[in-house]
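Writing this down once: the sequence line spells out the residues, with the fold written below as integer tokens. This is how one looks:
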Amino acid sequence: MNLFMLKCKIHRATVTDANLNYVGSITIDEDLMDAAGLLENERVQIVNINNGERFDTYVIKGKRGKGDICLNGAAARLAHKGDKVIIMAYCMVDEETAKNIKPMVILVDENNKMIEYLNETCEK
């Protein structure tokens, strides 16, 4: 049996922009992508803490060090600049591997700069 397991999470990021006139996706600062272990074009689930919206999209690499968290296209209707979001990616693994998976969970400040790993057992 294969299971979908949490791979990584960026917790309480602040939306910096919402661009309705774009093809789609979420732009994430490359530093945050590296810290969380996200890849460009990877599917992510976004949870908007402010309004409860949950939706999936894919990652576009943002400029390193800028702190960008920008929702693009239709996703721009589901969050506003300043909203707090949780960005999660999942992986599919076999049941035995699932028992030992340790997701990368990072906490960011109000400027979307990583401040700590919430899961101290994570390997970077």
In short: The chain has one domain: 2-117. The mean pLDDT is 93. The chain is about 10% helix and 50% strand.
